[in-house]
Amino acid sequence: MGAPRVEDKVDYRRLAQLDELEFVYATYATHQFAKHSHETFSIGLVERGANTFLHRGEKRIAPAGCICAVNPGEIHTGDPGSDGWTYWNFFPSAETLTRVAEDLYDRPMQLPELHSSVIDDVVAAGLLRRMFASFMRPTSRLECETNLVETLAWLVRHHTDLTGPQTAKPLPGAILRSIDYLNSCSDQNVSLDHLAEMSGISRFHFLRSFSAATGLPPHAYQVQLRLARARNMLREGQPIAEVAITVGFADQAHLSRLFKRSYGVSPGRWIAAGQ
C-alpha cells in the first residue's frame, strides 16, 4: 500500500480580542492559489513539505521550518507541488507592524518592509510557534498580545528596513489614471477599449504597461479590488449572495470560486472564523 493520500484541510480563525486578527492552520495538497495580494502582511511558518510560490516575479520555495513573508499589496501565488505543505499563517495589519516598530525604536517610523519572502530563522520560527499555540487557546488576552508583539518585534528588528520601504518608482500617469478609475468603479463591467482610450495608449501597450506596473493584468486587478470590497462587506454581516452582486460578480458561486482561489477558504468558512 502507498502512503495515505493527503487532503486539503483548513482551520481559519479570527481573534476578536486582537482586533479581529486573522490566522490559519492549513494543509494544502491540491489547492493552487491564484495571483493575489492582501491589504495586510502575510506571514507564515511552514511545518511540513514546502510552500512554492511566485513573488516579485520569481519562484520561491519555503521548506519546512522556514517562514514565508509577503508585504501588503505584493502579488503572489501558492502551489502545493507534488507533496503539498502544512503551515501556520497570520495577517497582521500595516498599522500593527508600524506601531511595533515605533515602540521598538521609540520614534516615528514609516511602514517596515520585510526584506525576504523566505526567511530561515530558528528563533523567529520558535516565536511563531509559541504565538500560534497561544492563539489556539486564547484564554489570556495578555498572553496572546505579548506573544504577538514579541514575534513582530523580532521580525522588525532582524528582517525589515528600519527606515521604511524604499521609495517606489512612480507609476506612469496613463496607468495611474486607469488604476484610479478601476478603484472608483470596481463593480462595473469595464472594457479594455475604454481603459486604453483613457490612458491615451494602444490596447496592447496598455496591457503590457499595466501588468508591468501592478503585477496583474487589468481583469485580475479588478477581481482583487472586488474581493477586498467583498471581505469588508462580509465582515459587516451582509449576505454572501447580495455581496457578490454588489461588488460585481455574476452570482454567489462566482464570488465563492474566486474567493477560495485567492484566500484558500470559502466565504462561508471565512465568515464562520469570526463567530
Lay out the secondary structure.
Blueprint: E1 9-15, E2 21-28, E3 33-36, E4 42-55, E5 58-63, E6 67-70, E7 76-78, E8 85-90, H1 94-105, E9 118-119, H2 122-136, H3 141-159, H4 173-184, H5 192-199, H6 203-214, H7 218-235, H8 240-247, H9 252-263, H10 267-272
Antiparallel strand pairs: 1-2, 2-8, 3-7, 4-5, 4-6, 4-8, 6-9
Helix pairs in contact: 1-3, 2-3, 4-5, 5-6, 7-8, 8-9
Give keywords.
alpha+beta; 275 residues; AraC_XylS_family_regulators; Jelly Rolls; 2 domains; 7-stranded antiparallel sheet; DNA-binding; globular; Arc Repressor Mutant, subunit A; two-stranded antiparallel ribbon
How much of the sequence lies in strands comes to 15-25%
Looking at CATH, the homologous superfamily of the largest domain is: Jelly Rolls
CATH topology of the largest domain: Jelly Rolls
Number of individual domains: 2
Helices and strands, in order, run as EEEEEEEEHEHHHHHHHHH
SS-based structural class?
Answer: alpha+beta
Low-confidence stretches: none
Fraction of residues in helix: 40-55%
E-strand count: 9
What's the average pLDDT? 91
What's the CATH class label of the largest domain? Mainly Beta
The biggest beta sheet is recorded as: 7 strands, antiparallel
Summed up, the helix count is 10
Radius of gyration: 19 Å
Q: In one word, what is the shape?
A: globular
Distance between the termini: 41 Å
**What would CATH call the architecture of the largest domain?**
Sandwich
Domain HTH araC/xylS-type: 176-273
Keywords: Activator, DNA-binding, Transcription, Transcription regulation
GO molecular function: DNA-binding transcription factor activity; sequence-specific DNA binding
Protein name: AraC family transcriptional regulator
